């Protein structure tokens, strides 16, 4: 399959496809970060995660419409406000869901999967009723359009670069919150031993609620970033949910580093393969490879050594 | 112990009689052929739900990829029917007569090698059982021997469902793509489309369903069934007692796969087509929903769950398409939160005690038929 290209062509192809893969990587990482917190830390399978992401995307879309209508002078900066709003909206909904649904199910992890699936159906229908079944696209501000020319044969789109910078920032922030802050220590303590954590005075219920909220909030930000590279529909979230779960499981569920590494390898494999074969076959091969590796190494790439 | 030594205890016998009465007598007498065919379609999911009772309810293995096995069984059957429908005289207008129409549309000029054996009905029937069975054996061995279970297993089976769907949709020339295999006509020269054929197929399906119920009940009553339950509750203790936990899990998973495949094959026969929309993640999870609503611990409950949820889906989505997804989602959350044992759990908690009391008060009266009709009450 490499025969028809010269070495230089191949180099450019790999760089360009690699860059396309990096944008996919950003979306995966943002989605998977939230999921890694919820699934990896709390053991809850949140099938509605994609719908939380889409909520963020719709919030971004509404914000951009509002700015266009009432504050056209500030339009170039709307995205930053939209991101914060998306985080707050998804996080608030997440906390509500934790309070109403998830907290009753911590002892039955498989049942969280079923209940959140029900939730995702309801959210999808809610989006369809409120925003309509058609996909909506966000108008990007002027400075995000266009692309940077790196060399003669290599061009990278600006919105892609922006999404990637965003991803890096959010990843650092999440890592800081989880591993450096007092609250992150509490989260990890509750995960490792709920009863002992409660005994030393941590309010485990509150920690659970905020952890779930944080995970959903990050999903909202992921949705915000997602609007820059694709259009949003009521069922867009569902397309990503399986991939994201595979990313998290492949990385080793409780490890942030693993999540990033697996998101990187999956997205790069897929986008590089996509150049040489149809998109669907590229996806099949990537997923097959992941499932195959998971069968050989079920604990994922980076597993914490835990006695069970 | 006397009760356990019988194949059905009294309440199960009542459930059996009620289900048999409804499926063999009441529905065929009261419904027109179109509706009866719809019931036949619902019942194909009952096979899957039955498998899930064994594998999820008893074994504690939640598989989110039952659509894969449903699809494999269905596609095996559909391939045979499609080949028969694509005889040379039926496909004269194609550029290559004698191959299925979708291959011709995709510029394939010869029948692919893996299609060849599906000219034979014997091979097809064997394939319907063996292909999904072996596939489940491979997945099960790879996963359970390495002690992967619970949520990981669920996610990986889900990924397998996603892979198979993408593969079927992508390989349009070999599988019919997103449209699936349509225009299935005859089975060994016997037309499956007219009304009387639909009725015969319905009864064949119900008989098969009862055979599968019998097998499931047999597994449940033997030592095997008890080990499955023990494994679900305390996996390590079973392992320390010297049982190979992995082998029992693999067995349960394979049985569930084979049941699902039989359902898929009956789907292709009854509905007359097969498409990837019955393979993917969404249908796979819906199949779990049927089981959960009917009762994950109850063999008859699963059958009722499949019939009732689908009936509700058809009637609600016909009249209130907006409400249906809300209703389904809410139903699912309610089942998980409020009554994890589903309809059969409600039945056992609230209705069964009353019937027992009724029996206790008038033991000699012929109350059987009345109650067995009342047993159909969860149908409403």
UniProtKB/TrEMBL annotation, chain A:
Keyword Transmembrane helix attached: yes
Main localization (coarse): membrane
Keyword NAD part of the UniProt annotation: no
Membrane topology: Multi-pass membrane protein
Transmembrane domains' residue ranges: 12-40, 52-71, 77-97, 158-179, 212-233, 239-263, 275-296
Pfam families, sorted: BPD_transp_2
Family named by the database record: Belongs to the binding-protein-dependent transport system permease family. LivHM subfamily.
Official protein name in the record: Urea transport system permease protein
